[in-house]
Design a protein that fits this description.
Layout lengths: L1 H36 L6 H14 L11 H7 L2 H4 L8 H4 L5 H10 L5 H8 L1 H22 L1 H12 L2 H6 L6 H20 L3 H15 L8 H16 L5 H27 L5 H11 L16 H13 L5 H19 L3 E3 L2 E3 L6 H9 L2 H24 L2 H11 L1 H19 L13 H16 L10 H36 L13 H4 L15 H10 L6 E4 L6 H5 L3 E3 L14 E5 H8 L15 H6 L14 E3 L3 E5 L2
Parallel strand pairs: 3-4, 3-5
Antiparallel strand pairs: 1-2, 5-7, 6-7
Helix pairs in contact: 1-8, 1-9, 2-3, 2-6, 8-9, 8-11, 8-22, 9-22, 11-12, 11-13, 11-21, 12-14, 13-14, 13-20, 14-17, 15-16, 15-17, 16-17, 19-20, 19-22, 19-23, 21-22
Length: 638
């Protein structure tokens, strides 16, 4: 019997790894296919040249509002291509953070092959995404065993949200990877406070802080976890020992990981240029610098400290880090103009992330999460009934602290996101998705493997109970299998348009623009499809292009393209009888304005809406004659 169990365990472990390999290959293939088909998205116009500036010139003057690690990794393979880098361009020499102009110059005006540069830059982000899936699998394997570990990993690998953002040179997947690593290593350290686990946590936290500035939220999150763990385990360890470990962990993460990377990438950034750029970028922050003889306001004092640190060799690496944190905080406070379920607003909505996630996540994954939520809540209710709630909660923390840590992160991060007015994409709650899948998988495992026999009954009753339990388990297993098959089918149907993917409630990849745009639907990914469409239609002699993204219309379409926007009026006045307009630009122009939002009449495409009636339903647009990809609408103007 023991020999059989060992053989079964070995077979299960090998099968789990084999399946994981297939899943990773499938995810890599899907992301590679999409990456090859798509043009540069908006953020890549800034991130690709910035990353190349870091690794080629060790100069951090571009894109300081994002940490360097993802951009630097993405740009590293470009060193093998040796593309021309326009270091004499004013966007590099004199501009303050001239990231957008530098991106246009680097990709389209320096003799480089932009598609080769873009596709090469996307290789390591895809690798990071595969690592993100693998780390989730390893954590699930530690908690659920090899058989069940594949469940959250498969859902993550086939999530259109992950596949969409996993192949771009952006910081979202990197942030999710860093956060999962930090949560995993921190909970392992709290369970077993060894020196090795401490340094794992230090490295994970440092890497997370180098991925995206939203990872700063890990600092209060870790403080919360350490506090709760102390409350659950006192008097085994003192409060001060927890506080000491937390402070030391955070300090070492910045000292050993963050500071050296920023030191490296500011090595050739002239100190005078860094100081003057910092002064210019922070010139309006919190009302600007204090007048002579006055004391700065508290928030402004942080900016003044940053300016002072930027002028000194020892402190300027951390000054560049702090500059990014301040810029992100300033932008998050300001909000972002966006179309959302019928209105255009700059104020944001508390319903944005719940609604967008409900429309973007696949329906089978939502069903999987709902069943997991029901199972988790049922377990908590059962525990609460079994003992006084405080005692039951402490018992739960002692036995299931890792589960609590995951749940706490989801609640805290969602609460922060819902409160934020920066409503620019479901990608901002991406770090919570692996935690939700892990929690739901754990609940499914308990529910599916629940097997209760009434031992006080006779053998016949016990046999009936066993048969009934096996029948229920078979039905539950069939339900789970159907969910996984549905996920596979829905993801396959979305390919390669993962960014525009919406579930059936959202109308699928072609109709999601009715509810929300920006990086949920249209980030500029479809310009190569527009080039194909124009080349396939010789009757399109010239075309007005109102495009949201990083592609350069003159580079791809030559003299046939005329850059356009609503205020230029009807293109027919200049002999142009075709118009291509991005969904994001069109929705922001024609949809109703929310209270408090203003828009000039000339920016509302009145001549187009007068020519063609909008399609019925929420967020309807004038029906196009063609679509390039999913997000660029093409109109013939007779």
């Amino acid at each position: 019997m023991r020999s059989f169990l060992r053989m079964y365990a070995a077979w299960t472990a090998a099968s789990s790894w084999f399946l994981m390999g297939i899943v990773l290959l499938a995810a890599a293939g899907l992301m590679g296919y999409s990456a090859w088909q798509e043009s540069a998205i908006m953020d890549e116009l800034a991130h690709i040249p910035a990353g190349y500036g870091y690794v080629h010139s060790l100069d951090y003057r571009l894109n300081p509002e994002h940490p360097p690690l993802v951009k630097a990794l993405a740009a590293a393979p470009l060193l093998l291509l040796q593309p021309a880098f326009p270091e004499t361009d004013p966007a590099w020499t004199t501009a303050v953070n001239g990231q957008w102009d530098m991106g246009t110059s680097f990709l389209y005006h320096s003799g480089n092959d932009p598609e080769r540069v873009i596709r090469t830059s996307r290789i390591l982000p895809i690798v990071l995404t595969l690592l993100f899936i693998l780390v989730t699998y390893l954590w699930a394997r530690e908690r659920l065993g090899p058989l069940w570990a594949n469940l959250p990993a498969v859902l993550l690998a086939l999530s259109p949200i992950v596949l969409a953002h996993g192949h771009y040179v952006t910081t979202d997947i990197g942030a999710a990877l860093g956060i999962v690593l930090t949560a995993w290593s921190a909970t392992r350290y709290l369970a077993s406070p060894t020196r090795r686990n401490f340094w794992y946590a230090v490295l994970a936290l440092g890497v997370a802080e180098l991925m995206k500035f939203s990872a700063v939220l890990l600092l209060p999150y870790l403080a919360f976890l350490f506090l709760v763990h102390w409350l659950a385990h006192r008097p085994e360890r003192t409060f001060w020992s927890y506080a000491r470990d937390l402070v030391l962990m955070c300090a070492m993460a910045y000292l050993v990981v963050v500071y050296p990377v920023y030191f490296l990438f500011t090595a050739q950034y002239p100190i005078d240029k860094q100081a003057s750029d910092t002064v210019a970028i922070l010139s309006s922050y919190e009302g600007g610098p204090p007048e002579g003889g006055t004391v700065c306001r508290p928030a402004r004092c942080l900016a003044e400290l940053d300016i002072w640190m930027s002028r000194h060799a020892l402190t300027r690496p951390i000054a560049q880090y702090l500059l990014g944190v301040i810029m992100v905080q300033q932008r998050a406070t300001a909000g972002n103009t966006a179309y959302f379920v019928g209105d255009v607003s700059a104020a944001g909505s508390h319903w944005y992330f719940p609604v967008v996630y409900a429309l973007k996540e696949t329906l089978p994954a939502l069903l999987f999460l709902l069943v997991g939520l029901w199972g988790g809540l049922s377990r908590l209710v059962d525990r609460a009934r079994a003992a006084p709630w405080l005692q039951a909660f402490r018992t739960y923390l002692r036995s299931s602290f890792t589960e609590f840590a995951m749940l706490a992160f989801v609640v805290l991060y969602w609460a922060y996101s819902v409160k934020s007015p920066l409503n620019i994409g479901v990608r901002h709650i991406l770090p919570t998705i692996p935690f939700m899948y892990l929690l739901a998988a754990s609940a499914w495992r308990r529910w599916l493997m629940r097997f209760e026999l009434r031992r006080d009954q006779g053998p016949l009753t016990m046999m009936k109970d066993a048969a009934r339990a096996m029948g229920y388990a078979t039905l539950k297993g069939a339900m789970l299998g159907a969910i996984l098959l549905w996920v596979v089918i829905e993801t396959a149907l979305a390919a390669p348009h993962f960014l525009a993917s919406f579930n059936e409630f959202g109308g699928g990849p072609t109709e999601g623009y009715r509810y929300v745009t920006d990086s949920n639907f249209d980030w500029g990914q479809d310009f190569l499809y527009l080039r194909e469409l124009v080349n396939a239609h010789p009757e399109i002699d010239r075309i007005a292009v109102d495009y949201f993204g990083a592609a350069n219309s003159a580079y791809y379409l030559g003299a046939r393209a005329a850059d356009w926007y609503s205020a230029k009026g009807d293109p027919r006045a200049q002999g142009i009888h075709w118009l291509a307009v991005s969904a994001n630009n069109l929705q922001n122009a024609i949809q109703p304005k929310a209270a408090g939002y203003s828009r000039k009449p000339e920016d509302e495409y009145g001549w187009l809406t007068a020519m063609r009636a909008s399609s019925p339903g929420l967020g309807g647009i004038p029906e196009p004659d063609y679509r390039a990809g999913t997000s660029i609408f093409v109109y013939h103007l007779p």
